[in-house]
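[Primary structure, fold]
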Amino acid sequence: SRRTSELIKYAANAFLAMKITFINEIADLCEALDADVQQVARGIGLDKRIGNKFLHAGPGYGGSCFPKDTLALVRTATDAGAPVRLIETTVKVNDERKKNMAGKVSDAMDGDLNGKTVAVLGLTFKPNTDDMRDAPSLAIVQALQDAGASVVAFDPEGMAVAAPMMPGVTMAKDAYEAARGADVLVLV
C-alpha cells in the first residue's frame, strides 16, 4: 500500500540516521576514554548483523533525505499516537552534534576563537556533490562565526552553492589558500 511504502522509506532512512548518530556518540566516548573509534567501528562492523556501512564518525548527518525523513517519521508517529522516541532522540542528538563541533574547535584553541581565522575544508553534506541541504557545515560555520572567528572555506564541488548560504565566509580557490594563515584547520 501507499502507506506501507512511505513507512518503508522513512524507516530505512531513520534507521541509517540512527546508525550514524550511534557511531558519533561512540566517537565521543572513545575520545573521552582514549580509544580509537575507527577500530571500534571496524570491529562492530564485522558483525554481519550490524555491517560496516554508515559507521563513519563525523559532524552529523545532513542531506536531502535523512533530515526530512526522520522528521516526517516523527511527525507521522506523533499524529498516529505511536511516538518513535529513538528517532526523536536521533534528530535531537544530531542537531546538537553539529553545533557542538564548533565547541571542539574552540577547545583546540584554548577556548577562544575571537579574532582567530578558521579554515574549513568540506562544505557539502557529503563528498563529490554540490548539495548543501542540511549540511553540517552550515551550523558549524555559523557557530564559529558566533564565537568571533573569521572563516575561510574550500569545497571542491560545493562552493558556488555554499557561498550565498554562508555570508561573511571567504571562499578560497583551493585547500592550500584556505589553510594559509589560518589558526586552525577544520575538516568537515
About this structure: The radius of gyration is 18 Å. The first helix runs from residue 2 to 33. Helices lie at 2-33, 37-45, 66-79, 85-108, 136-146, 159-162, 175-179.
